[in-house]
Amino acid sequence: EVQLSVEEDGGHFACSSRGAFERDKKGFPGDLAWLKFVFGSSAVAALDLVDQHSVTRIVSPSGRAVYQVLGSSGKLYTCYASCHFCTCPAFAFSVLRKNNSLMCKHILAMYLSQATGACQELSVSDQQLASILLAEEEEEGLGTMC
Fold first, then answer.
1. Ranges for the SWIM-type domain (predicted)?
2. Rounded CA gap, 137 and 62, in Å?
3. Contact 55, 44 (CB under 8 A)
4. Distance between CA atoms of 47 and 39, rounded to whole angstroms?
5. What is the CB neighbour count within 10 angstroms for residue 143?
6. SS3 assignment, position 69
7. If both were cysteines, with which of 60, 76, 116, 139 could 15 make a disulfide (CB 3.0 to 4.6 Å apart)?
């Protein structure tokens, strides 16, 4: 089980699991309350995605990287750390349209998996990465994102 750690300055955090969240709900001291306070219900869902190793960093020889997160629905979403964007409907609705969330659970899972080293890594050619991005763009009808 991976534990959450939040530095005093609030600038650093790592990951936890649902088990730690359950302990925190029972009144044990912990930093999960902070994570849930800042990110709401997305925090628990993101921790579940990290625990399930659902986050993959896809990197090309040129240094370009994107993240793909296998959502709880079984659909694969692409996240861009460079511009804080996710292709999921929740990001489009809650973050962009309603502006009532900082990020979706997929982006939070991306950051948490980076912080804990729980992110899987896949190396692909630049051409393969371009194909992945073009396929995502065509599927979602997104146009230029970042």
1. 77-115
2. 21
3. no
4. 11
5. 6
6. strand
7. 116
Give the sign of the dihedral formed by CA 55, CA 110, CA 72, CA 58: negative
Specify which of 34-38, 42-46, 97-101, 119-123 reaches the highest per-range mean pLDDT.
Answer: 119-123
Instruction: Using a cut of 0.90, tell me whether the model's pTM lies above it.
Output: no
Place of tokens 């005093």: 8
Tell me which amino acid residue 91 is: F
Q: What are the tens digits of pLDDT across the range 39-88?
A: 888 898 999 999 999 999 999 999 999 999 999 999 999 999 889 999 99
Residue with tokens 């659970």: 105
Whole-angstrom distance, CA of residue 35 vs CA of residue 28: 15
Q: Which residue has the tokens 């629905």?
A: 73
Residue 97: CB atoms within 10 A of its CB come to 9
d(CA 105, CA 40): 10
